[in-house]
Amino acid sequence: MNRAFRAKHETRMKHNLDILDNLCAGIMVLDKALCVTALNASAQALLETSESRCIGLHARKLVLHSKEWLADLEQVLANNSPLARRSMSLVLLSGQDIHVDLIITPLTGNSDETGLLVELQGVDRLLKISRDENLLHAQETTRAAIRGLAHEIKNPLGGVRGAAQLLARELPDEHLAEYTRVIIREADRLRDLVDRLLGPNQQLNLQQLNIHEILEHVRNLIVAETGNRATITGDYDPSLPELPGDRTQLTQAVLNIMRNALQAAETPDSCKITLRSRPQRQFTIGNKRHRLVCKIDIIDNGPGVPEEMLHAIFAPMVTGRPDGTGLGLSIAQSIINRHGGLVECESNPGHTRFTIYLPMDEQNA
């Protein structure tokens, strides 16, 4: 009888935990010493952390500049009365500033069970979902326009190239044939440029892969390119499961972003790049909500992206460098989009962060 009751109780508890993990609001439970005892998936995503990192951690260590945050928690604990704050600013350990609606409720019970229930609702969440959806729509519209333009360019370009080849056969003087060779070379160069504008168009070769292997491979490529002069550090979450992806194309996407960071630096010696991976639960990309995504941050200490360019940084031919083509980031975004993901950029002088979101298999969620 006791065994059956215990099994039923454990099933009910697991069901309750599943419900909490599917809530959009972040839920956190603190004991009377203000140490974390529970954290649902949305709270982990909002605070950019994981439950395993937070359990037993004091609330002051969850955010930077925690004076106001701690004062509210201590007030509720002392007065045994709920408190609500609107649009409270929290600075995450990564340095990112977020705004949340905060509700703190005291948990009553015997002396060993007292504590706090903290509800966090990101006020920027709906704005971010709308912005991402608009970004994906704009990028798809841009790609459709480029595909149409590429078709209109490549057809006459092929005719020009073919005519130059025919003309070369009829010319009696080899010296004159050099002009037709110039026409053919330039036609080929324009064709290659159009193909690069379109980005990778081959079918994705999906397989289960370890994203850290790709990050380390690209890190080694960049180190080799710079003669071991750039400083590249990894901050990986080893608990991340494998995800479905095309190894070659994901390598190209990460390589394009890291090369962009390297080229923005004054010298390779001054370039510092951090690669960070974290799981993120209950995350929305466009209009689709994913139970689990892989979040990859590529952070550099370069001069940053000019504010007037930030909204268009993933558009083709947009570049801040005189010798740049403006295709690297566009191709990276296209590759990640084809994987069902998204690339975002936040930039200030000395701290630019490109964030890649890649959905994981439902079986891993």
SSE topology sketch:
Blueprint: H1 2-21, E1 26-31, E2 36-39, H2 41-47, H3 51-54, E3 63-64, H4 67-79, E4 83-92, E5 97-107, E6 115-122, H5 125-170, H6 174-198, E7 207-209, H7 211-225, E8 231-235, E9 243-245, H8 247-264, E10 272-285, E11 288-300, H9 307-310, H10 328-338, E12 342-348, E13 351-359
Parallel strand pairs: 8-10
Antiparallel strand pairs: 1-2, 1-6, 3-4, 4-5, 5-6, 7-9, 10-11, 11-13, 12-13
Structure report:
The protein is α+β, with helices and mostly antiparallel strands and 365 residues long. It folds into three domains: 2-122, Beta-Lactamase (2-Layer Sandwich); 128-198; 207-364, 2-Layer Sandwich (Heat Shock Protein 90), CATH 3.30.565. 45% of the residues lie in helices and 26% in strands. The chain contains ten helices and 13 strands. It has helices spanning 2-21, 41-47, 51-54, 67-79, 125-170, 174-198, 211-225, 247-264, 307-310, 328-338; strands spanning 26-31, 36-39, 63-64, 83-92, 97-107, 115-122, 207-209, 231-235, 243-245, 272-285, 288-300, 342-348, 351-359. The strands form three sheets. A six-stranded antiparallel beta sheet has the order 2-1-6-5-4-3. A hairpin with a 2-residue loop joins strand 10 (272-285) and strand 11. Helix 7 packs across helix 8. The model has no long low-confidence stretch (mean pLDDT 80).
